[in-house]
Amino acid sequence: MAISRAITSKLQSYFLPSFLDVVNESYMHNVPKGSETHFKVFIVSEKFVGKPLIKRHREVNTVLAEELQSGVHALSIIAKTPSQWESDPSFVKSPPCLGGSKL
Amino acid sequence: MLGAVFRNVRPVAMRVCRTLAMSAEQKEDINSRIKADKIVVFMKGVPEEPRCGFSRAVCQIFEMHGVEKFSAHNVLEDDELRENIKEFSDWPTIPQVYVGGEFVGGCDIMIQMHQSGELVDLLAEHGIKSLIK
């Protein structure tokens, strides 16, 4: 839970999101039970207004650089502005694991 | 005073160190790979047999657009490339997609560009006609 909490609090304080969901998807992958290696972040923030996707993702990656360097192996990001979220509140499901992380 | 200055520049300094970890030849190697084809994908596994769901999703998107040929590099067979590509693109995860020598993003960005129609435009910019209008 420690990494999950760290991710949530860092994103909270940096992006002041109007919606934030951090999902530990590690159970879907080829890792020991209780691992914190694969995450999905769904974040809605005013800070994304006027920024292309790549810039939004880079910002999230930068805020979570420490986690990404120390054990977080996959980070899926859905970053929307409040108006985009209003027009399409869908949550894309992550694809199934194919075993590659064990190699 | 000086201590405060150093504390402030530390993240930048770390990034410089990481960049230096990759040699000029390694950088050149990646440079030539991303320019060798209009679409270049760094992925886990091969398009015929991806070893990660995110890598597979990227291949499936290209398939939906009728893109049959693109260059794919399997990072599971090359540890050096697996680390260097992250540094090169300043992007922490695999897969990574390059179109026309420019970094486009990973799986999430590809899915969203596919959904929004931007991918059709991007392919068209590089003379690739998508099956999806």
CATH class of chain A: Alpha Beta
- What general outline of chain B do the C-alpha atoms trace? globular
User: Helix segment count of chain A?
Assistant: 4
Radius of gyration of chain A: 14 Å
CATH superfamily heading of chain B: Glutaredoxin
Number of domains of chain B: 1
Task: Please identify which CATH superfamily of chain A we are dealing with.
Answer: BolA-like
> What about the largest sheet of chain A?
3 strands, mixed
Could you give a quick summary of the protein structure above?
With 103 residues, chain A is α+β, with helices and mostly antiparallel strands. Chain A has helices spanning 2-15, 53-63, 65-69, 82-87; strands at 19-24, 38-44, 74-80.
General description of the model:
The complex is a heterodimer of chains A (103) and B (133). With 103 residues, chain A is α+β, with helices and mostly antiparallel strands. Chain A has one domain: BolA-like (GMP Synthetase, Chain A, domain 3, 2-Layer Sandwich), CATH 3.30.300.90. Chain A contains four helices and three strands; from the N terminus they run H-E-E-H-H-E-H. Chain A has a three-stranded mixed β-sheet with strand order 1-2-3. Chain B has 133 residues and is an alpha+beta fold. Chain B has one domain (23-125): Glutaredoxin. Chain B is 54% helix and 16% strand. Chain B contains six helices and six strands. In chain B, the strands form two sheets. A four-stranded mixed β-sheet of chain B has the order 4-1-5-6. Chain B has a two-stranded antiparallel sheet with strand order 2-3. Classes of the chains: A alpha+beta (103), B alpha+beta (133). Chain A binds chain B through residues 53-54, 57-58, 61, 65, 68-69, 74-78, 92, 94-101, 103, and chain B through 11, 44-45, 50-57, 76, 90-93, 103-109, 111-113.
